[in-house]
Request: fold
Amino acid sequence: MITKGPKGWDVDFWLDKSAGIRKRKRGFRTKSEAERWVSDTRRQYSQRGRDPGERLSDLVDTWQELHGSTLKDPYRYSRTMAIAHALGNPIAATFTALDFGRYRTQRLKDCTPATVNHEHRYLKAVFNELIRLGVWHEANPLAMLRQLKVDETERAFLTLDECRLVLQECAASTNSHTLPVAQICLATGARWDEAENLTRPQVANGQVRFVRTKNGKSRSVPIPAELEKLILSRGYPGNGKLFSSCRSAFRKAYERTGLHTPGQMTHILRHTFASHYMMQGGNIVTLQRILGHGDIKMTMRYSHLAPDHFATALTHSPMALLDSAEN
Reply:
């Protein structure tokens, strides 16, 4: 188990033969140092019931097997694994908030605080889920690390003239499904994937019913009769998907318009619906239900567009009261 090698003392032993866990390490300066390492390794394993050499990527793999594979985001696992390797794939038991803090400082040189916050949430969620599953018995190392403050940015939306221009280019697309999918997004605030994946039974009686949505909740939104007719006439027959993939066709159509909305392509249609809905006096709670937001705070980003937003500032401010008293 402990032998004298050409470069010091070497260790080779079964930590848990039934589990196939074998530990090897070479180059200890003294035999007592090697024995101490064996003792510490056995003690840590008996306390945690886990391989003390387990790395962050191993936890991500376990998370994917037990939970991540059930999520709708097909890129979550690869993104989280990339974060683990960008961190140097440290030993899981030694990973701390300080390690992530240093990594975050370097990442901010190449990406936005919002991106770093996403990475923080992804990795934190891995530990939280493994704790819930009884796989990880220590505290979440990222539990007390605060998210970076991100300034709220103004979300762009299209004017009515710009909407007409976009739809004209969609109509000119060689993909006949581009126009109806774009119109569905503008008429209902749907995400592009939600509209593109509609089936014929989901379009009926002047409504579209969105299922298998981002938050898992179904919702129905009314549509104009003309749009329903267009959807059913251009969509594939049968009860399967109505449309083929047309995201790239929309991207080309959007590029032909010459419009520039950084960071937004198909999602600009969803923001445009929500913005015009509020500008026309729509109700914020109803908008939440239409968009399928699980948290009203997501919908509140559009509240400032309502005609009466903070209108009472004109009548309730000290200046307004002074003017009223003088008159």
Notes: The chain has a mean pLDDT of 88.
